[in-house]
Design goal:
44% helix, Rossmann fold, seven-stranded mixed beta sheet, alpha/beta, 10 helices
Amino acid sequence: MIAMHNELREVIISGGRKLGLSVSEETVNKYEQYYQKLLEENKKYNLTAITAAAEAAEKHFLDSLLLVEDLQEIYNTSVVDIGSGAGFPGLPLKIYLPGLKMTLLDAVGKKVLFLQQVINILELYNVVAVHARVEEFAANHRESYHVAISRAVAELRVLVEYALPLVQVGGMFIASKGPAINEELRAAEQAIEILGGRLEKVREIALPLSKERRSIVIIKKISDTPAKYPRRAGIPKKRPL
């Protein structure tokens, strides 16, 4: 177990350096505790298929930190992580940028319970885990956040209907996607426009060890989202805009 934790620590520190990030001792310690709890609860809840230390360090923690570049300039801001699952990318970002006010949103109760346990163990403030479907959550939290983030596997045209109603005009939605993004971007053009967004940029970056490519898609909220969106639970995925 000690060797496993050392490997996690080394990959996060060295990989972070390659990404231009300085990961403090305090932050790494919190990531170690988080990882330990993930391994324990994964036996019960099947939270992730990625459990080996080096792979988890890169594909969970460093992958989440790819968004630091887009968030560090708006440090003291409200963020909602849509489909947070086991907490990625929202929780590693909150730990690295503690000034963020973070909401971790997921529709699966056991995942939210796990997130609450991690928040308590790490004694984190200004972060909450919420058990709700995003379509229903939006009814009471419309335009409540400066930023929405997600690395969920849903198509971009589906994700924007989840995210943009939650974002204030002038805010943004950041989606972490794989390398083959062009077709998804084309398919999402209409949805982005309807929902009050504008594609700002796509930042291509590689993970430091595996060299797996990521596309960080940034969509600016430029006008109010029509009140009828998001549509009721399940419809955005079944009938994308």
